[in-house]
Amino acid sequence: EPRHLTMEQSGNYSFSSTKRTISVNAGSAINALSLCQNNNKIVVAGRSLLKIYEIDSFNQIREAMNLHVGRKQGLNMSSSDVVWSPKEDNMIATAATNGAIVAWDLNAVGRNKQLVVLSDHRRTVTKISFHPKEPSRLLSGSQDCTMRMFDLRKKECTAIFHSKADGVRCVEFSPFHYFMFAASFDNGNVQIWDYRQKSTYLTQFLAHKGSVYTLNWHPDEEEKNKIATGGRDNMVKIWDVGSSNKQVCNIPTTTSVSAVRWRPTHRDQLATVSMMLDFSANVWDLRRRFVPFAYFEEHSDVTTGIVWKPNDPEVLFSCSKDGTLVMHAMREAIQPWLNTKTRGLDMGAGGRISLAGEHRSIHTRAQSPTGSGLPVKLPGIFSWKPGNFSMDSDWPGPAPASPTAKFSNSQFVYAAKNYILNGPEKELSFKQLCEHNASVMERIGDHNVAKVWLIIAEFYSNKILLKQKATHTSLPLQRTYSDAAPDRSNRAESENKRTATKSRTEDVHGSQNLFNGDPDSEVQSDEGRLIVEDYLTDIARGRHSEPDFYISDEDPNLWGYGTTSDAEFMSEQEWSLIGRVPIEAFEKKESSSPQSPSFTDPDSDPFIIGKKLVVKSSEWPLAFDDIRDDLTMKELRFGCFSFCICRYFHSHGDIQTAVCLLVAMSSYPTHINLPLDDAETEHWFSSYLDLLFKNQLFVQHAEVVKLSRLPNIRMLSASSTIHTNCKACQRRLPNTRSWSCDRRSDHDHHVNKPVLCFLCKSVVKTLYVYCQTCTFGGHLGCLQAWVERSKNRGIPTGRCSNHC
Amino acid sequence: MVSVINTIDTLHEDMIHDAQMDYYGLHLATCSSDRSIRIFEVKNGTQRLLSTLQGHDGPVWQIAWAHPKYGKMLASCSYDRKVIIWKEQDGQWIKLYEYADHDSSVNSVCWAPHELGLILACGSSDGSISVIKHHGENQWEATKINNAHTGGCNAVSWAPAVVPGSLIEPPSQNQQNTFVKKFCSAGCDNLIKVWSDKDGRWEEVEKLQAHTDWVRDCAWAPSIGLPCSKIASCSQDRQVIIWTSDESTGGQWTSKTLNEFDDVVWHVSWSLTGDILAVSGGNNKVSLWKEKLNGDWTIVSDIGKGQPGSTE
């Protein structure tokens, strides 16, 4: 686990607190490097380079010796590899591209410190290795497909091992098996040899696709059978060569691996460098195979060699073709894990939450061939669906009806599917429609919205009835007066009630504020009140001067001016209009409030307003019986009432209710114009339509579009214009009626690729009918004939399962 | 109560870094350290592996679905410094475009609101942010913001394409013209920055400072047109902060700490309506938060330990 690894590393900070990355330039490209036994000197070798650097007690690197002296050393000096004897501090060996192996005695007197030149190999020596215990035993691997053992005391080759394979890429003595060494080859094989047995290898296995550039025995005695190999196939593989040659683990890297080195004391970590493209030195952890545990980016060209400081796993040396030798400090490494998010979270359509993380309880796949032998923490993915919040005791706050409406997708879908929006089509009265919709909401447990439907039903059913009656009278003016008449007759009653009303007015305004929503929407509520007042004025004026007093935003100025003669009446009217309905409505609320537990914590739920409106259904008819005949008043109040309801719902994200109310109301021919802005309702509609679309409720989508009275929304159904592209040149055709492209003159593509009917194979010039999924199509006539013949077996291709 | 409906064995070989559901919530894409992206069909509590997308050379950190009006399209970003845009054509997922202009691991991808066109923002560990715009016929144009976040950018999130306040004051014609593309980004410099499009160039318009450690994720809340913008951010410092910008206060961003958690907070995600915030912390725990009328945030639900199907 990454965090654990990070901790482990940070724990070692003090261990190497003085160390930091240091770089020296050797002057020319370096091919290889090696540390001496005491870890205080390092040798670097290149094409015309052989230098020894000393690391002093202050951790500075300085040049100690330059072995590349004189001009006549020629090709023997073009080193591809260099090793320092693990036993003798004065002994190093270099391998040259011409096949020579040179042993150097650093204690030799004079300028020429070459001990011996061994020219047995006929082609480039790729790798040499000292025996870990015997200082004079040197092993080499060459492109001439042989490995040779040298005795540096005898200064001769003591054994030849024929690989029977391909060019040797790497050889290395096992640090713990005394007689054993491993070799890797260009053909992808790895061989394990016992050098006492010169005829053939102990085992061989195919390790990589393509060359195996490098191998490294594990430095830990407990893991002495483990080998890491790296190859051209961008993989690092870990093998157990003890009994069977089993692949233990692999690390996929981004580029071919030219060197791999286990990190001392960190059993699961190793460093790699790449042969091309990637100049960085990467440190990997087998428990996180896919991203480096850390990396170093100091080099500006290919990094050719790496070596860990055996007694200090916090230090890594690397050399590069850019000529630099760098001592890296692990604590300065870049750790990509720190940038990594180990969780994925998404809240998608319908309130589903998906979370990606580790599933700790499963360990079963640890034995899989690709998995590591270490306990693997398997990734798991969970997705949660918020179910019914409301009835659960865990729910914070005693809200019996909770904000599920906008949250729970299933409820949304259910409501969308079951709502009846087009009453006239189903021959339902408005009241029946509302009752149906209320029952829908009751069924899914959203009592607030159900009540709202019932309230709307109460209000509007009379109005719509009235309107239907009024249509018989045919004269709007008369209708208006007849509407007003009961109101006038009720004026006496209003007068009587006025004193009582007055005292309650304060409450009313308070209630209205509540009604208009939460404190955030101050602007909204102000606006709402403003419109209410305008509305009152309008009504009052309309009574005298205008035939149709229904609020319409077409010409608000029409209502704005008038004589003040009926000011008194207006104010009176205002009292009664504002006063009566709300008081009656809210009185019920107040009386019922003690029964409702939700009132104890009004802040906990934004739906509180909705709740306050909700009273027991049995009480409603009672409340409205008093004013049943006072139609004008109701209508007035309803206008702003429904307006407020819609706004309220919308402001709390319940687009569905808001839009459905609007749609249902407007579905009747004598619809009520609400004091709503077109742009605003359009916004609601488009939001709702988007939600429907998201839930793939296309039928409901179409219905809402159809029932909408907003021109822009209705256009949606008309705007399913398909822009047709020319089949040949992929350009949009100039008009939808013609199938000919206006670039016909430029290309002769229409001659080559005309639009063909799939059935009769002739060019379609008129109406082209096609399936939207598979674009199969042709003449309308041809298709019709075909469909009749095939009796609904679908379109005549195998490509599309649609029965178009 | 929130319940686990599905636990999916993705068969990924290593850690999953992201799981995203498409627009309809029918497909789930997961990406993993094992360099692959897997696409599942999730239906009625069951899931079916549809495809495995191979193409990245390193762990895939994040994925993002494009709006379905552009077809089935997926963007992914990876440790291999590449961003790949995948598209399903005739049932096969193909690489539509590969963007490789970052100098380090790309940590985050986010599609702009579909109204703005096919635009992708990518945040990288090299500290830069790229905005890749589609010009039709697979022509993509990239704009790069260099040195956006010192130390690397961890997350990007687009502002919704709704003019704040459009619900209250329906946008007039000229207001719509002045709509500017915006996104926010979170970085290793403990900052959240808000970027705004100015004549095709991206300008830093806001620098939000309150976190005391790397900011892991930021998410701009979807808007229904209310006159305030919200950004949620979470950080290594274990805090989740809600940033609010209200037109009434002149667009100033104010911060409010949602909660201080016991562990690093990895991700924040808003519900479609922008009223519920999901927060993913340590121990595979997810909590849902909702704003109360008084502006405080209250926990709605807590998923994780002790729940059926949870990790323990």
UniProtKB/TrEMBL annotation, chain A:
GO terms for cellular component: cytosol; GATOR2 complex; vacuolar membrane. It comes from the Eukaryota. WD repeats lie at residues 118-160, 205-249. Signal peptide: none annotated. Keywords: Metal-binding, Repeat, WD repeat, Zinc, Zinc-finger. GO terms for biological process: cellular response to amino acid starvation; positive regulation of macroautophagy; positive regulation of TORC1 signaling. Pfam families: WD40. One of its GO terms (molecular function) is zinc ion binding. Catalytic component of the GATOR2 complex, a multiprotein complex that acts as an activator of the amino acid-sensing branch of the mTORC1 signaling pathway. The GATOR2 complex indirectly activates mTORC1 through the inhibition of the GATOR1 subcomplex. GATOR2 probably acts as an E3 ubiquitin-protein ligase toward GATOR1. In the presence of abundant amino acids, the GATOR2 complex mediates ubiquitination of the NPRL2 core component of the GATOR1 complex, leading to GATOR1 inactivation. In the absence of amino acids, GATOR2 is inhibited, activating the GATOR1 complex. This is GATOR2 complex protein WDR24.
Automatic annotation (TrEMBL), chain B:
The keyword Nucleus applies. It is found in: Lysosome; Nucleus, Nuclear pore complex. One of its GO terms (molecular function) is structural molecule activity. It holds the Pfam family WD40. One of its GO terms (cellular component) is endoplasmic reticulum exit site. The keyword Protein transport applies. It comes from the Eukaryota. WD repeats lie at residues 53-96. One of its GO terms (biological process) is cartilage development. SMART domains: WD40. Keywords: Lysosome, mRNA transport, Nuclear pore complex, Nucleus, Protein transport, Repeat, Translocation, Transport, WD repeat. At the nuclear pore: component of the Y-shaped Nup107-160 subcomplex of the nuclear pore complex (NPC). The Nup107-160 subcomplex includes NUP160, NUP133, NUP107, NUP98, NUP85, NUP43, NUP37, SEH1 and SEC13. At the COPII coat complex: interacts with SEC31A and SEC31B. Interacts with SEC16A. Interacts with SEC16B. Component of the GATOR2 subcomplex, composed of MIOS, SEC13, SEH1L, WDR24 and WDR59. The GATOR2 complex interacts with CASTOR1 and CASTOR2; the interaction is negatively regulated by arginine. Belongs to the WD repeat SEC13 family. As a component of the GATOR2 complex, functions as an activator of the amino acid-sensing branch of the mTORC1 signaling pathway. The GATOR2 complex indirectly activates mTORC1 through the inhibition of the GATOR1 subcomplex. GATOR2 probably acts as an E3 ubiquitin-protein ligase toward GATOR1. In the presence of abundant amino acids, the GATOR2 complex mediates ubiquitination of the NPRL2 core component of the GATOR1 complex, leading to GATOR1 inactivation. In the absence of amino acids, GATOR2 is inhibited, activating the GATOR1 complex. This is Protein SEC13 homolog. It comes from Ciona savignyi (Pacific transparent sea squirt).
